[in-house]
Specification:
Strand order of the largest sheet: 1-2-3-4-5-6-7-10
Structural class: alpha/beta
CATH topology: TIM Barrel
Number of domains: 1
Distance between the termini: 17 Å
CATH architecture: Alpha-Beta Barrel
Helix content: 25-40%
CATH superfamily: Divalent-metal-dependent TIM barrel enzymes
CATH class: Alpha Beta
Shape: globular
Length: 292
């Protein structure tokens, strides 16, 4: 079973985007997540035709079958400050253009920080997504990511995510899907350890399992409902191994790309190799009746 799953990790683009697929191959990944630029700088490089061609050629020889992009950490599409919001919209449109040039499946995007009024923030965020998608037509979806609910960050509840999607323009709403981060939803108050099935039943009732397009598999350094975004290695945190065993064996998630964002350690490969081997072992376990 494990070999058929889309499984991998976030990999570096140091030296250029075309080098990322080889880094995926080095850890045995068939799915990767990348940045298309330095995530904590506003500078927006272009993906030239030569870069796009080199990236496609590298993918062809790497064994990587699925790529998602993560957007810049600086973008805040819910900002109430006009210049900051305008800069964020411009940057997100550039993310869409780069992702289109690379032919990736989607862009994982953190909802914004509303900073003043919650409902106004959701509307600003939705309007900005709509404006960006209308400005850059094409295939890549926006995969809105669940958040831990720190401060005024949107996306801490399934209801907030539903409200955000519903407020996005109908003409582009089909390009909206979601990315669930296990650390984030556990920290936000969804107990994947004790109430695994109930969490996913709630997701299905509010958002629909068909909207789930990516999973970030991260354990949490902080306790349940801490509202803190602190990733750690699978099995080393407050989630423990059990929810990840369930995810890897659950047929509902079989076709969903699963991406690690856990600490790399002293090099780019050792921890990812170990974590991916562990996840594959969960998928290949023979489940005994009554054992989760």
């Amino acid at each position: 079973m494990a070999e058929s799953l889309l499984l991998g990790a976030h990999v570096s683009i140091r030296g250029g985007v075309p080098l990322a697929p080889a880094r995926g191959h080095a850890i045995g990944a068939n799915a990767i997540q990348i940045f298309t630029k330095t995530p904590n700088q506003w500078r927006d490089p272009e993906i030239t035709p030569d870069i796009a061609t080199a990236f496609a050629a590298a993918l062809d020889t790497s064994g990587v079958r699925h790529v998602v992009v993560h957007d810049s950490y600086l973008i805040n599409l819910a900002s109430p400050e006009p210049s900051a919001r305008a800069r964020s919209i411009k940057a997100f449109q550039a993310e869409l253009r780069r992702s289109t040039a690379l032919g990736v499946a989607g862009i994982v995007s953190h909802p914004g920080n509303f900073m003043d009024d919650h409902d106004d923030g959701i509307q600003r965020n939705a309007d900005a997504y709509t404006e960006c998608l209308e400005a850059v037509p094409g295939h890549p979806q926006i995969l809105i990511e669940t958040t831990a609910g720190t401060g005024t960050a949107l996306g801490r509840t399934f209801e907030e995510l539903r409200a955000l999607r519903d407020a996005i323009g109908a003409s582009v709403r089909s390009r909206i899907a979601f990315c669930v981060d296990t650390c984030h939803i556990f920290s936000a108050g969804y107990n994947l350890v004790e109430d695994f099935d109930a969490v996913w039943e709630e997701w299905d009732a509010i958002l629909g399992l068909d909207t789930l397009a990516c999973l970030h598999l991260n354990d949490s350094k902080t306790p349940f409902a801490s509202h803190r975004d602190r990733h750690t290695l699978i099995g080393d945190g407050s989630l423990g191994e059990r929810p990840f065993r369930r995810i890897m064996r659950d047929p509902r998630f079989a076709d969903i790309p699963k991406i690690l964002e856990t600490p790399k350690g002293d090099d780019e490969t050792t921890n990812d190799l170990r974590m991916l081997a562990l996840l594959r072992s969960y998928a290949d376990e023979v489940q005994n009746p009554g054992v989760a």
